[in-house]
Amino acid sequence: MTTSWSARFDEFHERAAAQTGLSDFGGSDYHEGLRVLLAALDDRPPAAGTKTASAEGLIVAPLAARLHTEAQWKANPDYARREIPSPLIVMGVPRTGTTALHNLLDQDPQFQGIQKWITGAPIVRPPREEWETHPQYQAAAANVAQMAAIAPDVMTAHGVYAHEVDECLLPMAQSFTSNFFPSQLDIPLYDQWLLGADETESFRRYKDVLRLVGLRDDRRWLLKNPSHVFGVEAMLAVFPDACVVQTHRHPASSLASLVNLLDNIMRAYTGEGTDRPWRLARETAFWAEAMRRTVAIQDRYPDRFVNVRQGDIRQDPLAVVRRIYGHFGIPISEEAERRFAAWAGANPPEGQSAHAYEAVKDLSAINDAFGPYIERYAL
Questions:
Q1: Are 208 and 274 in contact (CB under 8 A)?
Q2: Would you kindly state where each structural domain of the chain is located, as residue ranges?
Q3: Contact 63, 25 (CB under 8 A)
Q4: What DSSP character marks residue 44?
Q5: pTM of this prediction?
Q6: In CATH, which superfamily holds the domain spanning 6-376?
Q7: Is beta strand 305-309 parallel, antiparallel or unpaired with respect to 111-112?
Q8: Half-sphere CA count of 201, side-chain side, radius 13 A
Q9: Sheet with 111-112, side-by-side order of all strands
Q10: Using one digit for the tens of pLDDT, what is the confidence trace for 80-118?
Q11: pLDDT digits 0-9 by tens, 319-359
């Protein structure tokens, strides 16, 4: 008889402990989300073979990350005294320009971000000249190289290299209250639970991760995660002085691109694609709810937000930056101006993404779900 996923709760902890040589997972606040996730996998188990192995990896990795994080907090207790004042946070439905804008703003040396090689096992970020010799950096770089070899389409659409700033999604998965899991697994029960879950503790833990990573760096934080539009109320509860930039694009285009990207990622990890119609329906429902939440929050705190269309980032990136900085009173140095101009030169308006995807044929469901959002932002 096959052991249920729910019965493997202790097993996954043991695997993470064996992998890391550590044993302290911190508090038990993540147990509920993990148990719901396991129950959802019992309800809709992945196919045997590579899909099962992939699902197991998605559970063990955040548990291992918790172990690393707890150990680092103990080794560096001064992290708790750090503050995260007025972070600049980029968010929006995936494939609306969040990564491009994040990379553009990262040209400004007044900001710090969390690099890809640190997201899976947070540590105090060492000086830049030491990265290439760090085993964790080398492992991350090797993983990126492997992805580039087996799934070049993924790297073309959303490639982040080990040294580059990455989004908040993976570190926040440590709390098991996250879109990290349903974005890669078909788990309706977890989705249903996530709709009513409170992400506040997840954001609090992530804030402590940032305190750790930036322990020796006093620069302002630049963060990015599409899923923050879903957890926006919890985000502002934990980062009440956040300066938020939301990107926009017609959801028919962004969701078509997203479904194709998720399908390519699944093929890279398992050799099999996704159920595209099911995935499109899931992403439509999830991100439409996220937009409903964010619109409501923007109405309550309009001064906390700047809205940017994806096309504007490519057409006139310097104007976008100036509008963001002007709204939030952020100074622009001459060095930042030079770097922004260099980025604009390397990403000209006539340049086109090499990420090809099939358009959504029937727009009725998307237009119905996103009608008020489309109208509000004239998409």
A1: no
A2: 6-376
A3: yes
A4: S
A5: 0.94
A6: P-loop containing nucleotide triphosphate hydrolases (3.40.50.300)
A7: unpaired
A8: 14
A9: 111-112, 220-224, 88-91, 243-248, 305-309
A10: 999 999 999 999 999 899 999 999 999 999 999 999 999
A11: 999 999 999 999 999 999 999 999 999 988 765 555 566 77
